Amino acid sequence: MATAVAICGVILSVRLPRLLAPVALAERAFSFVAAIVVLTIRDLPERKIAKLTLLCFLPWVGACVVLWFTERIPVAACGNGERCRTGLFARVAALASRMSGIGPVRAETMAYFPVGEEMRRALISDLKQAKTRIWLEYYIIAQGKFWNEILAILEEKARDGTDVRLLYDDFGCSFSLPRKYASEMEKRGIRTAVSRRIRFSRGVTRRDHRKLCLIDDVCYTGGINLADEYVGELIRFGHWKDSAVRLKGDMAAFETLYLRTWYALRPSDREKDKAFPAAARGTPPDAASAAVISDPSSLSERLGVKVLTAIAASAESSLYLFTPYLSLPNALAEAIAGAALSGVDVRLMIPHIPDKRAVFFLTRAYCRELQRAGVKVREYTAGFLHAKSVVADGKYALVSSYNLDFRSLYVQAECGVFAESAPLAASLEQDFLSCWEQGTELKKVSLFRRFLGRLCMLFAPLT
């Protein structure tokens, strides 16, 4: 018996390498092709490093991920942003107009909502008073008390002849709405389109992450989706902290943004609509105006990261940031760290109770890197912080759907409002400082966990 085992061992030791040689050769060839693709496509340097590292450790799986599921980002989207020293709002408005073709918003009034419950009351009131149109575009819509309350109003307004449109992301609503929900809405008189249908193709990660509601001359945007947890009807991860802004005035810029997506999904509606509203181009920006912070559906330009970098680079006294997730490209990380190193009071708030543990681990790792530059970091202890807002120097405010991570900054469709408004900035700053007083410091971790955090940071551009 022992002799037979020995003979089999000798045969395998001679034959096995020959049998595995073609497999090993195919693995190297496949990985080599994937590496060439990574090196030659126009992409962020951080993403290239992450992809090449993945190929080294997992040749087969890594090559499949690189060639199939990841996104390409053109060089035009990879710039370091403009350093804004003076006239930040005017520069941002001009930047937005050049990159997106959408001018500034002429907002007569701007109201900030620090929690979803407050936004809900104002939103329901505006919906009931709508006369000409209600256009909704949301990443997540979930059946429940909040949505049912809205839906009842939408059906009533549709019967009365109001132009009611609903646009939602297929992935974001994959577990919260039935598959044939769009057809059901059409039967109720609500024109509906589903953005980014789930398909196993290169665009699988490019989601419509916007939160946008247009009611006549009123617009709502920010981080609040149409689901119960956002307005306190459902408790998930403790208190759900979020924010939004309400604008009233000339909303031509947001109309253009909305219809771009709508007509891409329903091109026949272009003929049905009476007129395509023109953006308010060339309107002189002032303290009562807000610039649109959004990105075209293509990845040729990424306005959000440039604006965030400009805000951080121009901050002179204070810079306060809310974000649920953190994984920063080098340009933005250096701008935030540079502000702290130059003496600016830079503070960052993240959740204490995570909704995604792996992503939260990565967020804390990036926070520790920023702490080395003097950025102050605290965690929102009351629950999950989902707000995506920035306030600088007590006069510049950004309320948007942008998370401070690679996916939101470089892949997904986003939107928001940037304004030079002392009242709006004061409301946001007061909200931030109130949360800050209730926050807790980052916990110290072992050297091993710090090493794991750095390892995760290597692959952050792929998340």
Describe the structure.
- The protein is of the alpha/beta class.
- It has two domains: 2-70; 88-462, Endonuclease, Chain A (2-Layer Sandwich).
- Helices cover 44% and strands 19% of the residues.
- It has helices at 2-40, 45-57, 59-69, 88-100, 116-129, 145-159, 181-187, 252-265, 269-272, 303-314, 330-341, 357-371, 406-410, 422-437, 447-458, and strands at residues 105-113, 133-138, 163-169, 191-195, 211-215, 218-222, 239-241, 244-250, 289-292, 318-322, 345-351, 376-380, 383-385, 389-392, 396-400, 416-420, 440-441.
- Strands 4-3-2-5-6-8-1-9-16-15-14-10-11-12-17 form a 15-stranded mixed sheet, sandwiched between helices. Strands 7-13 form a two-stranded parallel sheet.
- Helix 4 (88-100) runs antiparallel to helix 10.
- The chain starts with a helix and ends in a 5-residue tail after the last helix.
Main traits of this protein?
single chain; 463 residues; alpha/beta; Endonuclease, Chain A; 15-stranded mixed sheet; two-stranded parallel sheet; 15 helices; 17 strands; 44% helix; globular
Describe the SSE topology.
Layout: H1 2-40, H2 45-57, H3 59-69, H4 88-100, E1 105-113, H5 116-129, E2 133-138, H6 145-159, E3 163-169, H7 181-187, E4 191-195, E5 211-215, E6 218-222, E7 239-241, E8 244-250, H8 252-265, H9 269-272, E9 289-292, H10 303-314, E10 318-322, H11 330-341, E11 345-351, H12 357-371, E12 376-380, E13 383-385, E14 389-392, E15 396-400, H13 406-410, E16 416-420, H14 422-437, E17 440-441, H15 447-458
Parallel strand pairs: 2-3, 3-4, 7-13, 10-11, 11-12
Antiparallel strand pairs: 1-8, 1-9, 2-5, 5-6, 6-8, 9-16, 10-14, 12-17, 14-15, 15-16
